[in-house]
Write a sequence for this structure.
């Protein structure tokens, strides 16, 4: 469970600022009163009070700026949480309502065997959608906790990408040729489970926001035998440059939830960034080489596949490349 943010800092800052303002007012009253009583022998006191007053005003301005920043962050977080609640409500309500309708139809009417099997398939898809939502929320919750010591193992990156691409096109219900693969063999030494979660979220995001007809290209390259680069490009609308840093935040989805046509919770890319940080990898959004769309680039330490088929990677699957 995500720890709640403490209100101690903004409350303390507000109390300090109000106290400084009260002292400033009292000081100015004393200075004005002293000036009214006599103009002789008060020069040093006036200078001291003036200096103190200027320092207090400067500190008040700094405090107000910090307080404003904290307020803006709180407002943005509340807005993102509201979007998250809206999206989760929709993600829960839609499949539940769909399954309820199918079950009521099966109970009240005599449905032919062919249609009955179709109902079962649709209900299974709704259950998979709910399962995917729960997995997302659990992954996000686990990533907020301290990193656990998962086993680091050699993973053939091309196989991991291929496996995640297959899961995505089945889950999204799109044709296999929507995702084209251009995979060069290389090995990364990371916790396999974390890598698969990261890749699934990136590929799922690309397919979800691809254009019409959807096209997603995934390319894996090993640069200078030390850096593995995964590029996932789609033909959608892309991500504006000024918003590329925001999309990896928690609950962040561009636009309004009430006007959105794509399902989601705003946690997918947040999970990607958190896992990339744990793997000491770099995730970024770059401009496409040709046309429009978004290109996500993942960089992590890699190494070539040994010719002998060692490090636990099956020899039969090495050197495999497909388009």
């Amino acid at each position: 469970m995500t720890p709640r943010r403490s209100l101690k800092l903004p409350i303390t800052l507000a109390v300090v600022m109000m106290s400084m303002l009260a002292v400033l007012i009292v000081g100015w009253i004393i200075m004005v009163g002293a000036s009214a009583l006599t103009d002789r022998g008060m020069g040093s006191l006036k200078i001291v009070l003036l200096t103190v007053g200027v320092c207090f005003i400067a500190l008040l301005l700094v405090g107000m700026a910090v307080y404003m920043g904290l307020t803006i962050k709180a407002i943005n977080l509340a807005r993102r949480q509201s979007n998250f609640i809206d999206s989760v409500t929709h993600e829960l309500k839609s499949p539940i309502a769909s399954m309820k309708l199918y079950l009521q139809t099966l109970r009240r009417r005599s449905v032919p065997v062919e249609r009955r099997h179709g109902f079962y398939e649709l209900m299974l898809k709704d259950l998979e959608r709910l399962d995917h939502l729960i997995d997302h929320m659990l992954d996000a919750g686990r990533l907020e906790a301290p990193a656990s010591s998962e086993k680091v193992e050699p993973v053939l990156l091309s196989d991991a990408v291929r496996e995640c691409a297959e899961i995505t096109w089945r889950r999204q219900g799109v044709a296999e040729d929507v995702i084209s693969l251009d995979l060069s063999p290389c090995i990364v030494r990371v916790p396999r489970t974390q890598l698969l979660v990261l890749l699934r979220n990136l590929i799922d995001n690309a397919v979800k926001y691809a254009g019409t007809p959807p096209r997603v290209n995934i390319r894996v390259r090993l640069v200078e035998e030390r850096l593995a680069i995964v590029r996932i490009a789609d033909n959608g609308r892309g991500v504006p440059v000024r918003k590329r840093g925001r999309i990896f935040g928690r609950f962040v989805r561009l636009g309004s939830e009430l006007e959105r046509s794509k399902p989601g919770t705003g946690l997918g890319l947040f999970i990607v960034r958190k896992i990339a940080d744990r793997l000491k990898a770099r995730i970024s959004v770059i401009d496409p080489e040709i046309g429009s769309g978004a290109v996500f680039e993942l960089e992590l330490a890699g190494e070539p596949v040994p010719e002998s088929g060692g490090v636990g990677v099956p020899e039969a699957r090495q050197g495999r490349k497909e388009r």
In short: The chain has two domains: 8-78, 153-317.
